[in-house]
Amino acid sequence: MSAMGGYLALTRTEFRLFRREPFSVVFVLAFPLMMMVLLAAVFGNKQADAHKIQNGMLIWRGVTPASYYTAASVAVIVAALGLMTLPITLAGYRERGILRRFHASSVSVQTLVGAQLTLALVIFVAGTVVMAIVARFASHAMLPQDVLGVVVALLVGTAAFGTIGLLLATVIRTSRSAQGIGLLLFFVLWLISGTAPPRAVLPSGLRDVGGVLPLTHLVTAVQNPWFGFGWSGTDLAVLAAYAIAAGIPALWLFRWD
Amino acid sequence: MATQLSVQPRRPAFGAQPSTGTFVVEVEGLRKAYGPVVAVENISFGVLEGEIFGILGPNGAGKTTTVECAQGLRRPDAGTIRVLGLDPTTQAAQLRQRIGSQLQDSALPGRLRVVEAIELFAAFAHDPVDCDELIARWRLEDQRSQTFESLSGGQRQRLFIALAFVNSPELVFLDELTQGLDPQARRATWELIREIRQGGTTVVLVTHFMDEAEYLCDRVAVVDSGKLVALDTPQGLIDGLGLPSVVRFTTSEPDLGWLGELDVVESIARHGEAVEIRGTGPVLALVASELVARGIAPLDLRVERPTVEDAFLALTGREVRG
Questions:
Q1: Which of the 8 DSSP states describes residue A148?
Q2: Distance from CA of A61 to the nearest CA of B (A)
Q3: Is B253 within a domain?
Q4: Model confidence over A190-225: pLDDT tens digits?
Q5: Which end of chain A is more exposed for a tag (fewer CB within 10 A), N or C?
Q6: Domain count for chain B
Q7: Has residue B252 been placed in a domain?
Q8: Chain B residues with CB inside 8 Å of A10's CB?
Q9: Residues of chain B positioned with their CB less than 8 A from the CB of A5
Q10: Do A101 and B106 touch (CB under 8 A)?
Q11: Do the Cβ atoms of A256 and B73 come within 8 Å?
């Protein structure tokens, strides 16, 4: 009973806590939604823009700016949860002695993180649905062409950003510093991963830096099936590599107090 | 004459001292340092099955570190520990299913409700107790649907004690059991701990409250500055140190010098009519009989026996501060 039962009970608990903590809901879901609506409003939904080229790249990847931002904003939700919510929550749990309490009662790291990531995945799926509907009505954006492909991208993205978040929670001692560092990382990634300005308009140096960051790969991994370009194996593989590279040291070094 | 009288020792604070039995906790040569600070230095003791074993000492003495090592929450630098026949450093997962832990400085998510917390922890137990029964036993019915952050210090404490018993443990570690409880809740908690022991659970109690150790514990390990300074029954601690009792009464009789001739009397002090006699052994009985023999029968004759606190002071040379 205990391993599976514990996981289910902790997941249910995390769902309850998420509903009762309005701020985390607001930021994690409202920020990407707001940005999507704003950016789509600024750059519009004209089909003519779809094939504009800059620096040898299709600026909007062959779709309207509104469609581009809809799919990209889904990736932003994943990054926000992984870089901010997860490390802030876990570092806060550690600081307040909640992790000690869990540890003494047979809760494993895998269960703890598994529950957090299950919650995250459900939020991502719900956020994606909201995002797609709002974008459809507000700016005639494209609905996902390949739903399974988007779900798979979200799953792999959750693994990558979930383990990055766990690693941050492992190396950062307090929730206050987790807030600062998480926010900084989030905005840097958001600005150079094609989620704010499209990558085509970035200077080449920033584009190169962005090219190795996980959010850039997640954006492509989500956008490709969303626009009906097929699954992006390379991006999924890079995200999986991030998950392994962050996950192993995080599980190894994880501290309960 | 005094020395020929046999002194009936007071019974231990509760029940009989288990003189033989199985050790459920065995600690041998435990050492733990945090950087340059040595928290625990060469501590050894054993806890017998079914007893309430106290670890008593001032704050920072190394009590919590000792029990955290025994619970597999910290890795000792040196020494061996066996708890229920298991090694807490390598068999922590198995061990945690069989022990209960009430930790110092722990918390729960602020928005988690009492009943949800108990159900959550029960879900991790192989052999969980009935949640409603546990809530009733620790008088949390009125707080059932309250969130952790809205609980008072005492209510949180009761919840943490309840959580220590959620997995039907054979052995519980209670670290500062009655911290933050009001006097009635404290007394009620003591009675529940005794009841739990009657049910066969062994209790390791970390405390800096002398009265708690004296009232509850069958045996007490006194820890000071990371070292074990004494290990005995509460009464044994007191008796072993030969601490004086104090007999007090008032009398208008001017000269009491003859009381000083009793072997058991160590000192006599007078403040007006108030008399204070210090001595060891059956000092009250002998002083009383001597007084009566001389026609003095004070109404307020009474004795103050040395307490665990006095023993602690004598052992560590300092007072315990909360």
A1: H
A2: 44
A3: yes
A4: 999 999 999 999 999 999 999 999 999 999 999 999
A5: N
A6: 2
A7: yes
A8: 120, 123
A9: 123-124
A10: yes
A11: yes
A chain contacts of residue B64, beta-carbon cutoff 8 Å? none
- The range of the structural domain enclosing residue B138 comes to 23-239
Tell me how far apart the alpha carbons of residues B70 and B87 are, in angstroms, rounded to a whole number.
9
Inform me whether the pLDDT recorded for B15 exceeds 80.
no
Average pLDDT rounded to a whole number, residues A242-247: 97
Average pLDDT, chain A: 92
Smallest CA–CA distance from B108 into chain A, residue:
A98
Residues B31 and B143 placed together within one structural domain of the fold: yes
CB contact under 8 A, A6 and B108: no
Q: What is the CATH number of the domain that holds B182?
A: 3.40.50.300
Q: Looking at the structure, do residues B235 and B248 belong to the same domain, yes or no?
A: no
Shortest CA distance to B101 belongs to which of B46, B188, B55, B160? B160
How far off is chain B from A14, nearest CA to CA, in Å?
9
Q: What are the beta bridge partners of residue B173?
A: B101, B204
Q: Residue B45 belongs to what H/E stretch?
A: strand B37-48
Residue-wise pLDDT for B77-110, tens only, equals 999 999 999 999 999 999 999 999 999 889 999 9
Q: How far is A150 from chain B (nearest CA, A)?
A: 33
Q: How far from each other are the two terminal CA atoms of chain A, in whole angstroms?
A: 27
Q: Where are the domains of chain A?
A: 2-253
| Long-range Cβ contact pairs of A59-64 (< 8 A, separation 24 or more) | A59/A198, A59/A200, A59/A201, A60/A198, A61/A198, A61/A223, A61/A227, A62/A227, A63/A142, A63/A227, A64/A139, A64/A140, A64/A141, A64/A142
Segment of A36-45, B156-165, B301-310 carrying the highest mean pLDDT: B156-165
Q: What is the mean pLDDT of residues B225-234?
A: 94
